[in-house]
């Protein structure tokens, strides 16, 4: 049995939920609020961050890079040509580059600030840094997202999926990040038709359904968040 | 032929230089100053960051995660039991967790700020953000390093190498980061004997020699930087 420690609006934990579903791995979800610094959780992951995956009583698998490779190494054989990691070393490198782009660069410059300011700070007590969003931070993220949209637009226009011919981890890493920004109505879809068309294909996969059903108390999703034909 | 685009004081590029040497992969080094945003380099890696590895006329392999796995996938068979990635999925996950800790957490909280404030800002023109170091940033990094030293001390005291019984990518990722801070005299070695003893073992490997010979013009290394018996 797999257990995933996650937060519903952690973009990288969303990425892991998507790929676990794509690999058909039944997983128990346990919500963790990293800012609470729960002692038993810090024993599992001293970095104190989600996502953390655990298989039965095995050791904790911490962070997206470790989890993504672990899922493919332990379950890749069972899904045949639906594996999300390509075979050739060059193609694997391209998939990993784009996952890194999503969970590090896109997250730091755009989605992390949106989620922290607009979601986490509402949930956190003021002693842990909660409070009103910082408008300067939101403004910077709203500027930065255009560069990323242009780059994803270029990839979506020149390739079948973001990292090449085949659906890969890269598509889910980028889609998971964008899904958090989309809930908050922060994705300028009209700017990039190719990104929109690519996201519509990803969003209609069964693995995406649980994410589209997530709700933040008192903060409804943007009008098109659940809409497959947005 | 392999070509590595690097900066001598980029901690993650140092990590790649170490592991290329450990795998016996002859590599041509090309210095890149990421803040110059050189057009041909941005075509190789649109993120504009080092390290980037290229094999002959093949595609660019960008970033430590992609490069580390690529080296092991393409050269692991040739080095036998000197591979730096363990075989078992659990042990691989632990190695990847600690590489992530080094190149993301340790770099963001400690080594990145030291290098940016004390090295890069001396090399950069003021139009690119160069200038005097920000003492508040240095103070924060000097506070943060103690937590990391304690954690590495715990690992070094309970394991033969940082991620387990065998030398792995994790040891080189952490050592590469610490080597940059050590050049600047910013590592409180006296606090953690176990970390010091572990670093002395890593530092005496032939792969480390080129790093110990690096010099910044006008800024000599700390007195013990090159000393194997520090």
Automatic annotation (TrEMBL), chains A, B:
**Matching InterPro entries, A to Z?**
Glutathione-S-Trfase_C-like, Glutathione-S-Trfase_C_sf, Glutathione_S-Trfase, Glutathione_S-Trfase_N, GST_C, Thioredoxin-like_sf
CDD domains hit by this protein: GST_C_family, GST_N_family
Give the top-rank taxon of the lineage listed in the UniProt record for this protein. Bacteria
Per the record's keyword annotation, is Transferase included, yes or no? yes
Recorded GO MF terms: glutathione transferase activity
- Name its GO BP terms in alphabetical order: glutathione metabolic process
Q: Which segments constitute the GST N-terminal domain?
A: 1-79
SUPFAM superfamilies noted in UniProt: GST C-terminal domain-like (SSF47616), Thioredoxin-like (SSF52833)
Q: Which residues form the GST C-terminal domain?
A: 88-224
State the UniProt keywords alphabetically: Transferase
Q: Which Pfam families match?
A: GST_C, GST_N_2
This protein's assembly is summarised as: Homodimer.
Q: What protein is this chain from?
A: Glutathione S-transferase family protein
**What high-level taxonomic lineage is stated for the organism?**
Bacteria, Pseudomonadati, Pseudomonadota, Alphaproteobacteria, Hyphomicrobiales
């Amino acid at each position: 049995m797999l257990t995933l420690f996650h937060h519903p609006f952690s973009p990288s934990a969303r990425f892991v939920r998507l790929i676990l579903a794509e690999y058909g791995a039944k997983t128990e979800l346990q919500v963790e609020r990293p800012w609470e610094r729960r002692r038993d959780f810090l024993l599992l992951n001293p970095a104190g961050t989600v996502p953390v995956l655990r298989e039965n009583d095995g050791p904790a698998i911490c962070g997206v890079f470790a989890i993504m490779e672990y899922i493919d190494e332990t379950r890749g054989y069972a899904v045949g040509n639906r594996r999300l990691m390509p075979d050739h070393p060059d193609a694997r490198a391209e998939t990993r580059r784009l996952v890194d782009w999503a969970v590090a660069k896109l997250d730091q410059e755009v989605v992390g600030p949106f989620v922290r300011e607009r979601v986490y700070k509402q949930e956190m007590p003021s002693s842990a840094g909660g409070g009103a969003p910082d408008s300067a931070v939101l403004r910077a993220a709203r500027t930065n997202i255009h560069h990323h949209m242009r780059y994803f637009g270029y990839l979506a226009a020149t390739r079948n999926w973001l990292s090449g011919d085949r659906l890969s981890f890269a598509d889910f890493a980028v889609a998971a990040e964008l899904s958090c920004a989309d809930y908050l109505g922060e994705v300028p879809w009209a700017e990039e038709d190719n990104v929109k068309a690519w996201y519509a294909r990803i969003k209609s996969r069964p693995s995406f359904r649980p994410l589209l059903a997530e709700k933040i108390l008192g903060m409804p999703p943007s009008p098109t968040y659940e809409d497959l034909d947005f």
